[in-house]
Protein 1
Amino acid sequence: MNATAAPARRQLQPPPVAPSPFPYNPGSLLSVQDLSLDTVSHLLTRASALEAMDPIERARILAKRRVALLFYESSTRTRTSFELAAKALGADTTLVSSLSSSIEKGETLKDTGLTLHSLGAEAIILRHKASGAPWVLEQFTRLPVLNAGDGMHEHPTQSLLDLRTILQHLLPGLTTVSADTLSGVTVSIVGDIFHSRVARSNMFLLPRLGAKVVLCGPRELLPEIATTAGPGITIERDFEAALRQSQVVMMLRIQAERLAGLQLDLETYKASYQLTGQRLATLAPSAVVMHPGPIIRGLELTAGVADGPQSAILEQVRNGVAIRMAVVERALTAHGARA
Ligand code: CP
């Protein structure tokens, strides 16, 4: 009998994963995940310094540099604050909006980006309805690209201005962050998590500073898989239980424009998840109330809460200018462009 040895099993190895080439440009801000905590600290520190600076001195920093704003989706806060931030540093800005440009005639993102590059744009601030669009634009233009919100994916400058707002309330004066800066702090993010790029960027950033992030909302707007976005993230379906443990409550708008046929009974939603004055007073009387805007009064929160003493909503808007000055400066200066 011819005994033959069993053939040795070939060990299957996963294919090697090539390191991401993004960002190509060190001045880009595509994802908050690309920022080290040192760079987050640098941006927070520069935001404070630029805000306090003499306006004439500040306007010399990027004097006559060219910044393009390319917006495929509507915006009030992000667009205006990026524009004011770039202008405050002395840059010339131009706005290309999908509703009043050759994008309406079918020009692609690539060709629009290359056109802006040829016109002398040195950085492009992009808002787009498609997740990943800023990566595409950066690949084709190799310019610094600042993600001003891409689809349901990320809104990195919103999470930085949210962080600045949280620090101003809980740790005033602090602009240097580390892995335990927010330890012991619970931030509840409430509402339409599924469609929210703001939620996603905050879920990526805040736990890296030690915060506990509690996601709260109904199953239609908050799938169980959300906790896999990273460590430090849990789900609490009971809004009142979430409020009881929160130092920060971040309310979100229901994004009707992205519901795509999903039926939601708004009265049922409000009964369970609306932030009312009574819920706030009894369950979280010292919590900071935040909202990225636009707010829908009477839906995710009452007008009394929006205008009340715990609301930091307009501080968030103001912080948008300071943070975006730091981000635009980083995009266009060798000094600022640290990974
Ligand atoms: N927070 C935010 O992105 O608001 P806008 O859509 O008005 O820019």
Protein 2
Amino acid sequence: MPVQIVRNDITKMKCDAIVNAANPTLLGGGGVDGAIHEAAGKGLLEECRTLGGCKTGEAKLTGAYDLPCKYVIHTVGPVWRGGQNNEKELLKSCYINSLTTALEHGCETVAFPLISSGVYGYPKEQALRVAVDSITEFLTKHDMLVYIVVFDRSSFRISEKLFTAISSFIDDKYVDTNFKFRFSGRGEIGESAVLGETQILYPAAANLVQLRRPAKPTKTRSLEEALKQTDESFSEMLMRKIDEKGMTDAQCYKKANIDRKLFSKIRGDRLYKPSKQTAIAFAIALELPLEEAKDMLMKAGFALSHSSRFDIIIEYFITNGNYNTFEINEALFAFDQPLLGA
Ligand code: ADP
């Protein structure tokens, strides 16, 4: 997936380049800048001294010294002054200029911290949106794998209302399948939304039926016959749906945040089995209603289960006709679930 949001320490990222949220002197500072200089060693500061500083929104490249990447791209984010002082445009320039610099140096993988969202005070949620939008815009014209490295949980915050709605949806669905649970107390949004002590009470009659072995077919078919009757595959359904929606292939895989090479593989192999995340990403990109999304997942060998919070959250968004990957990821993050594309 071309843009991935990951939770990590950026100094640990094994990419072609990592981006530093530097200050205009480029002579080191606190936050992520301090962490990068510390991990890179003295050589980085020495090289930075030769650069003559950097203007807000611009980017300069150095070696990476002891870091596990090839380059460090230093960019200077805007200081937040209420949002009416060109902050958004400057922040976007940081991303675009850093990516352009990376491209000029042949980088294929780049990791960004959330620029300006620390000491410079840019509200994290807005900083993340600018990051995602700017990188996505850049990637419509260039092929690269870009990571946004989120360091702390407060970078994603969903509204109290959405949090409550999803919580009660999870509640209903868990009850549906005869699972009993209780919430642990929650402090900050996203901090303690943990379903504690899942306890299975009794299996529903329907589940018992499903547990029975299927009856043996009365007539054994030859393998060839069986293969002929195979249903439409995942790949075939995907191509059919893209046509039906009037999308181009590129529109679909870009919206799904899927790498072009992976898409070509799926298109070229009618029996290709994608990962569950990939199958879900396509179902979301195609804005399939729930039954069709489930059908598509089934063709890849998966189901949306009511005993998985991840699956229930996906179901919540599909049921509500909200196919915004970014918002889905915010919710997955708040409920401590793996992200789409992560
Ligand atoms: P700025 O001055 O641009 O605001 P900061 O370094 O203060 O830069 O913060 C930018 C973001 O980087 C913040 O969201 C902060 O939580 C995050 N951050 C700090 N240390 C690291 C690290 N080691 N890896 C990734 N992100 C980090």
